[in-house]
Known about the structure:
The complex is a heterodimer.
Chain A: H1 6-34, H2 41-56, H3 65-88, H4 96-118, E1 135-143, E2 146-152, H5 154-176, H6 178-188, H7 190-195, H8 200-226, H9 232-235, H10 239-246, H11 251-267, H12 279-286, H13 292-303
Chain B: E1 2-11, E2 15-25, E3 30-35, H1 41-49, E4 57-66, E5 69-70, H2 76-81, E6 84-87, H3 99-107, H4 114-127, H5 129-133, H6 144-156, E7 162-166, H7 174-190, E8 194-199, H8 202-208, E9 211-216, E10 219-225, H9 226-231, H10 233-238, H11 251-254, H12 256-264
Parallel strand pairs in B: 3-8, 3-9, 6-7, 7-8
Antiparallel strand pairs in B: 1-2, 1-4, 4-5, 9-10
Helix pairs in contact in B: 3-6, 6-7
Amino acid sequence: MNWQLLPQFAITGILNGGPVALIALGIVLIFKSSEIFNFAHGQMLLIGTMSTWWFAAEEGMGLPLWLAVICAMGVSVLLGLLIERVTLRPMTGQPLLSIILMTLALGQVLQGLTILTFGTTQRNFPVFFSITDPYKLSLPFQYNGNPIVVILRQNLVWTFVIAIICVVVLWLFFQFTHTGLSMRATAEDHETAQSVGIRINRVFGISWAIAGLIATIGGILIATASGLDLSLSIVALIAFPAVLLGGLESIPGAVIGGLLIGLVQGLVALPTNDFFLGPAVAQAIRNSTEIVPYIILLIVLVIRPDGLFGQKRIERI
Amino acid sequence: MLKINNIEVIYSDVVLVLRGISLEVNQGQIVALLGANGAGKTTTLKAISGLLLREDGAVTRGGIEFEGQMLGSMQPEEITRSGIVQVLEGRRLFRHLSVEENLITGALFRNASNRVIKQDLEEVYDYFPPLREYRHRTSGYLSGGEQQMVVIGRALMAKPKLMLLDEPSVGLAPLLVQNIFEIIQRINQEAGVAILLVEQNANVALQIAETAYVMETGRIVMDGPSDQLAENADIKEFYLGLTQVGERKSYRDVKHYKRRKRWLG
């Protein structure tokens, strides 16, 4: 084990988890308001990010970057509203499973539409932050007499900061605005919400619009780091274990789930060839970045079926 | 104010639940709707509030008129916005929200300013003083009586013209029932809210109601001013549990079956 790199990998991992947390939040949002697990979230993210590229790129509209981002956010809000209005509202009252399977189909359709519109080539996504000039963070610890310095790409730090700001803004929105309150009320009980005069269809629409919006932000944050092609919708799948890990209904759960998954993915890079189980195992662990979130997920769900922060059902006996 | 004209309600296109109900609630009145389990009281309320639509029920005949406007197939949230608020049976709170948040949800559709909402909250706390103390608690952990206060308070926050109360006495201790019903009466008198009260506890309901209707198997079998109904021999026996004291009673005299039959006629 290369202990000197532990803080480096841990911090990088957590920072990588920021966008994951944001994407996970979008899934939680829709699940909370309508009990639908949105399998099309990755594709919503892909479309939002692709349109950002299109608005900004020379081959597309060639808009300044900030304007491109705003336009793409508009597109994703419209997409969210459209999905809710056209595909989900007519399904109201149908068994939940059919609706959930429909989101799966919807994901494939959106993926196909993206291929038709934008093609399959890898795109150069605009880079927001300087790549050449990383931040150096000296920790107040020493290892074998050497001070521990963590090197962080600017990009990584700022995507994390933006993701966390979005999460906080959303939380404030839920906690302190009337729209947020009507969303939380609808999440608990549709019939009672209607009986107090909340227009629940509008609440669903808002949920999908916000989910589309934050999916796009999450997608942009990921794409600035790793480039943009169709696999982005698969990359976003990493948010699924984050959601389940945290508990489907919990906003703090989604955030902690996202960060935890980032952390674990960072830490698996740690074992070196002097690992106590031998070099072969070390190699296997290093290669397991993609599956380790799901392994953790399995373990957590076996111990706590509602996830780490799943809503405790309030039952009075 | 509210006029129900001979409505028929069918669930899932086959189950006939209400067979011609007519009733009327006037401005500022408390009207009680009595009857045993399964008589169709809750269905009547849901027909008014529109929540029937959620359960695959439909009004297939007759009409419901509120302040001169036919409610027809309006969505429940729109009916609430027009001034009819239903307090659902079984103390349906938003359990994970605090007491105050629950109350505020009742006022959301009015787009009122925070200042107005604060005033309305104070008004509700004046009716239900214990809620002021528990305002920041998670409502799901309150006792049954306090939860009933929250749901009635939440309905009050909507500034309704008509409140539909579905069995507010269920599962509460007698003293609390008395307390809640006194507050219902105060709400009626002070805020001028008309109330349609569904109850199995005929005793308390008849005390505060002006007029009352008795339902059986989807029909109204009796109606009138509540003091007259309270004197009615059948009501006394079936709903108030009163018989002449000190006399032995043979089952032949009760003729329970026959007398019910007569109502149905």
